Amino acid sequence: MSYNTFGRVFRFTTWGESHGPAIGAVVDGCPPGIALDEAAIQPWLDRRRPGTSRFTTQRREPDQVRILSGVFDGRTTGTPISLMIENVDQRSKDYSEVAQAYRPGHADYAYDAKYGFRDYRGGGRSSARETASRVAAGAVARLVVPQVRIRAWVEAIGDDTIDPANFDDAQIDANPFFCPDAAAAARWEEKVDAARKAGSSLGAVVACEATGVPAGWGAPLYAKLDSELAAAAMSINAVKGVEIGDGFAAAALSGEENADRMRPGANGPAFLANHAGGIAGGIATGQPIRLRVAFKPTSSILTPVETITRDGAAAEIATRGRHDPCVGIRGVPVVEAMVALVLADQALLHRAQCG
Amino acid sequence: MSYNTFGRVFRFTTWGESHGPAIGAVVDGCPPGIALDEAAIQPWLDRRRPGTSRFTTQRREPDQVRILSGVFDGRTTGTPISLMIENVDQRSKDYSEVAQAYRPGHADYAYDAKYGFRDYRGGGRSSARETASRVAAGAVARLVVPQVRIRAWVEAIGDDTIDPANFDDAQIDANPFFCPDAAAAARWEEKVDAARKAGSSLGAVVACEATGVPAGWGAPLYAKLDSELAAAAMSINAVKGVEIGDGFAAAALSGEENADRMRPGANGPAFLANHAGGIAGGIATGQPIRLRVAFKPTSSILTPVETITRDGAAAEIATRGRHDPCVGIRGVPVVEAMVALVLADQALLHRAQCG
Amino acid sequence: MSYNTFGRVFRFTTWGESHGPAIGAVVDGCPPGIALDEAAIQPWLDRRRPGTSRFTTQRREPDQVRILSGVFDGRTTGTPISLMIENVDQRSKDYSEVAQAYRPGHADYAYDAKYGFRDYRGGGRSSARETASRVAAGAVARLVVPQVRIRAWVEAIGDDTIDPANFDDAQIDANPFFCPDAAAAARWEEKVDAARKAGSSLGAVVACEATGVPAGWGAPLYAKLDSELAAAAMSINAVKGVEIGDGFAAAALSGEENADRMRPGANGPAFLANHAGGIAGGIATGQPIRLRVAFKPTSSILTPVETITRDGAAAEIATRGRHDPCVGIRGVPVVEAMVALVLADQALLHRAQCG
Amino acid sequence: MSYNTFGRVFRFTTWGESHGPAIGAVVDGCPPGIALDEAAIQPWLDRRRPGTSRFTTQRREPDQVRILSGVFDGRTTGTPISLMIENVDQRSKDYSEVAQAYRPGHADYAYDAKYGFRDYRGGGRSSARETASRVAAGAVARLVVPQVRIRAWVEAIGDDTIDPANFDDAQIDANPFFCPDAAAAARWEEKVDAARKAGSSLGAVVACEATGVPAGWGAPLYAKLDSELAAAAMSINAVKGVEIGDGFAAAALSGEENADRMRPGANGPAFLANHAGGIAGGIATGQPIRLRVAFKPTSSILTPVETITRDGAAAEIATRGRHDPCVGIRGVPVVEAMVALVLADQALLHRAQCG
């Protein structure tokens, strides 16, 4: 079943395809009385918007959001909030090639295998364009948990990783890569340009930190905060890996090394480390929540690759059109949005059970 | 809310604590007419059972499963299947220390922060003992998707990884580490012994492969197979990282390298690679499903570590008692079970929507 | 939590208020490959449309539906179907009275008690206008279960009930009351006119029958077909009672009278009666599904009634504006839609579990 | 799909058949810190227990509940509460007749049509025995909403209804019929005896009132309190009708008659009537919640009735064994339990969204 809803009590449902008339989200379960208008959502969409630099797709979308319901006199009413973003730049082109042959790495073959056919225009439902709906919904989620600050950045493009010693929060929004390391950003400019010109693409690692999450949010086992965050991150197009805290590196540590020791602190414990990424037993410890997300390289590349047609014949395909040379870059606001959506949901769930 | 249910139409709910009278699971939505008795479940539990070697906890549990409902004349009836495993070896001991002080890396502090108090006996609900319920439920799930073969193994303990060249499927059940590389298994014997004797513990990486999954299972976006598998794996105690296919390594590849090229094959495409781990756009491609799961080192260690008490005073704590020196080892049957549970659910969902 | 989603695998979510820019629904889980365009939905909306006779509200809404996603080349793709209906005739008026004083029988006071404030324009989310979204979604549901024929009608307005001896299916769409008894329709004309002129309103009973539902759809207990239909019907504005089969009358029968005896039939049993309304143990028996639904009289009446203001002061209020003198009449297409939505969901669920 | 879970955040799942080893429920999402032991549940089970008078089935079940998880030191921990009741009196008998022929009015044929076969011993999953699990879960729910008082009674057996003028709350637990009218109880003794001796059975109407529900619980539309209560009541075996407030009688009222007028009161409005049954727009108004539930006559009767066999041959069947002559009587504690379960869930949901 194509479930397109995420969340338990603060829930959102997205709809829309790359080349349909519009995309959107319905946010349900939002508390009433929160100040909300389009201006509170638009800046987050603008951060994700395509066409803002030569390092993202050249599709020109204003990504102007409209609130169609759930808000009255500038405040949420507690009823579903319908958000719509019109598709403006669905450039008419010839899709006959992609309609007939499967692009390796893409969802083309899998969709055909599942549904018998597919909307091949620009990737249809599997297009990264869907993530604009998440960012819009995420902007609402942020308002539900105003005490939380969520900050993501690109940690690596391809095999080139930032130097933690250079980490500067102020840099993140100062370059087209959401890169906190100015030196790395300079290198990436060349690197991404080269990939773009070669008709190739690059993967990326996005890191995210949420501070201000109170100890106690989350829940054991099947609603573990780790599990919800992993599901949220993995639901984003092109994501193939998630780590909470030290993640795979923790597997190489000993129990003593991995233990986040505690000392008496002002409010609860003062932790001496945060290998756990702020989550123990699925529940927030009050430390910063930390996660890392791996984006594979964009599947749409100009370089021709071996494939087959719908009829099973051998073929070669090159994906012409406008594509992100590194889809992970614009993943930054999307990861932030998903984290906000998980935390808003968990905040309400915690209040439900624990008052 | 402490959701303890997993799945959408093939669903299971687990209950029980380490030191209560029993643990169990209720499996709902199982198709009718499937041959099922305790003997079909017990072997899987036996693989996970504690106390079978000196490399796992010395708690002695027979882990004998009883089917209390949902089966008649040896076949599933389509009604909920209640599975119960009695706790036998809840050794009486003095819990005053762990009741008062928080074990770093453990769920102790987080549970107290959330619920105001906790069942401190043996970890309560956060104990790895809960995973026996998953293995029992997973045994039922396997019967729902008999065409699928699911196989997990330990790929690394601490920083010592197997040599893929030595991979031998027959080895996996031939040593106490579920290790497919005989040479590595020999090294790990020493390594785990050393950690155990030092009162330390080790992390591990578990890999899993599911073959026979037909192209088409899974669904876009919020029910992406990647997302469901990540949520499933991350819901296991001590797991902090999940990768599908190449995972984080894919982030370092170029689009051409990462493309799983296709040639005409006997049934659908013959893929030339499987960087995607058998999933594209959230939907199975028919290739083997591949994932990797990172287990942190067991938090319960004999080495004393700095901590605080419930009253906020400075303290030191060493976790006496019987613990797995490397909880990832017994994670192998648990990862397999979770993969089986996800696939059974997705198989039914696919049938619901696509006939 | 204001859950605005209905269904388990064939699910829909509605959004929108009476006086916002639009209302709509997102249908998720629809099987792929079903022929669908606006023309397949519009006729059902036209049946529910206000302003078609003097016996319904005089609000003039074209209720033109737009499909924004989930359809490609005239067929459903298996991805979410977004349906939108613009609000055209939100006549500007002075809402100061209704903003300040609670209309008895209305949701006004309850919304304020829950949310702290409310969108008072035309009833906001509690307006019967929301049911247009259900009718649109229901039109899609019908296409999922084409073997089923769903037919509802008004059985009583106020205390005036049709004569079963006069039942004529062809009459139902031949008068403005969806009344299968021409004689009753004639009487109702006067009755509803009188109520309208007196500034009063009337309740109604709607009956519904679904034929062609195969034995086996439905499920025991918490997803009993009776339970799903009751939830569906009771979720409609103004509904306060539901009966399956003989309903309350069955409580006055003896076991022998109530037993639906069986004889050998062509395909399964030939039933001699249908007291159970086509459902036994929560599962369809293959007989027609029969239910009855009670609509209370429209709460919006011109007759002034005693009430209080938001500040707790005594007041009197008369609801001016355009209202249905008998909201049950336009309930007919809504009940049909909800039955279609339940059956589409159950059809897919049955296929999921029982193949 | 045989969903056996009810509730959104306070959820319970039941399992078990009439003649299996045990039945039970898992309660999930219960707030932590609530005093709970078996003694807090047992009295509610004792009220429902069979064999306590000659007017209920003569099956002798102690219905002793055991808490297997979720409670520590006499308080709920916030983790799932597993409740188990052993089946003791599964009298061995010859089921060959009922295995072969379908009992009219029973779930026999429908189960076979759905699942291909069924557990025919004592009704299997469709047995009223399952309701013991609901009563146990409901006892926990009551503790979640201690401010609410829930009281149900039998209002009619067959066509003999109580006289409201005789209503005496103290009578309800003073006779074997949960009848608030002593005169009616006397009449019913004869009536039920006569039915029992004739091998017949009787239907019943159960009424229920919940006081102390604060204005604001509930939610619009698909989680309307009316809808949740209707689904809950209709999920009980043998229930075929539900009314909220005046229910079907409201359909015969005019808008003025049905309006629950308000005057200034001490805390919120003083209502002059309660036609709405304490719910407007799906949300509690603070008035008593009132509902009525119709139980059909027990399907198991000694009188032989015409039927068919599994092979489609004509047959006649009489249901020997121990059965309730009027299953609605023991429905009283079950309706109360379901109302408690709905209200506990809604209380937590309200807290989630509205703080």
TrEMBL record, chains A, B, C, D:
Annotated metabolic or biological route of this protein: Metabolic intermediate biosynthesis; chorismate biosynthesis; chorismate from D-erythrose 4-phosphate and phosphoenolpyruvate: step 7/7
Details of cofactor binding: Reduced FMN (FMNH(2)).
Binding site for FMN: 125-127, 237-238, 281, 296-300, 322
Pfam families linked to this entry: Chorismate_synt (PF01264)
Binding locations of NADP(+): 48, 54
GO MF assignments: chorismate synthase activity
The enzyme's E.C. designation: 4.2.3.5
HAMAP family per record: Chorismate_synth
Subunit structure, interactors included: Homotetramer.
Annotated family: Belongs to the chorismate synthase family.
Function summary: This reaction introduces a second double bond into the aromatic ring system.
Protein known as: Chorismate synthase
Biological source species: Sphingomonas hominis
Lineage: Bacteria, Pseudomonadati, Pseudomonadota, Alphaproteobacteria, Sphingomonadales
